[in-house]
Amino acid sequence: MKTRITQLLGIEYPIIQGGMAWVAEHNLAAAVSNAGGLGLIGAASAPPEIVREEIRKCRELTDKPFGVNVMLLNPNAEEVAKVVIEEGVKVVTTGAGSPAKFMDAWKEAGVKVIPVVASVAMAKMMERAGADAVVAEGMESGGHIGSITTMALLPQVVDAVSIPVIGAGGIGDSRGFAAAYMLGAEAVQVGTRFVVASESIVHENYKDKLVKSSDIDSEVTGMSTGHPVRSIRNKMTREYLRLEKEGADFMELEQLTLGSLRKAVIDGDVVNGTVMAGQIAGLIKKKESCKEIVEDIVLNGEKLLKNGGRF
Fold this sequence. Notes:
There is one protein chain. This protein is α/β, with parallel strands linked by helices. The protein folds into two domains: 4-201 and 283-306, TIM Barrel (Alpha-Beta Barrel); 214-276, no CATH class. 42% of the residues lie in helices and 15% in strands. It has 14 helices and eleven strands. It has helices at 4-9, 26-34, 48-61, 77-86, 100-108, 120-129, 150-160, 174-182, 192-195, 204-211, 235-245, 250-257, 260-265, 290-306; strands at 15-17, 39-42, 66-71, 91-95, 112-117, 134-137, 143-144, 165-168, 187-190, 218-221, 229-232. The strands form two sheets. Strands 1-9-8-6-5-4-3-2 form an eight-stranded parallel sheet. The protein has a three-stranded antiparallel sheet with strand order 7-11-10, with helices on one face. The radius of gyration is 18 Å and the shape is globular. The two termini are 17 Å apart.
């Protein structure tokens, strides 16, 4: 399928891998790009030199386009923004704020800038700031979430801006792809399903937790702090919600989750760690390669669109 997004990014299929902290490193990004999508390296809170190293390692594994997700709340964001330019990365997605102060430098370097947005107002603001496209991400997604569902958010963002819109949040199979396309998206961003990819470095305990999860196994913590996060229910989330209910302050809650994502992703502690995942997790029934995932979502999605929603 050819859309403005495939043309903008120089990719074969209109599918982007989410820039998930600790998960989206060079192996996964390269595998998704080699499969015809756009792989992303999640800079998260990593030091600039680690991001530089990840970019170089990714380039050793693929000659296809790939990008970097820059978290703007990262204290190192300014340095990471410079690394992106120095290393010749041509696509950046951003989260947790506005990339306006980096926009001129990125544009001068030929970088395509695609902010993740959770509201129409933010989408309009990003278009005015010079964004090449936006990712409209609904609250069904894993990790940090907004307050509007994908079904409601996506068509409103499409109507509000003239730049291409990428749908995200609760999209993990061909049906979700086709639905997003019908709502006006010109590509989709997928996170949770790529977590269980064979090329993903995520601990097998984490992958198994997702494969075994059901539709009601995710829950949201952090509503009281203004930074809600969606994860799979476990001992850590139950303790967090208990403390929230009792009125614990931000520092106490922050201490509980400090290093918890790494604990789950790298160490495989799915009891006390944070197992970030979207509500789509219940649809994931097996571990597959990135190539199998990309082709299943896009090629079968295209068939659905051609056949009026029927295989």
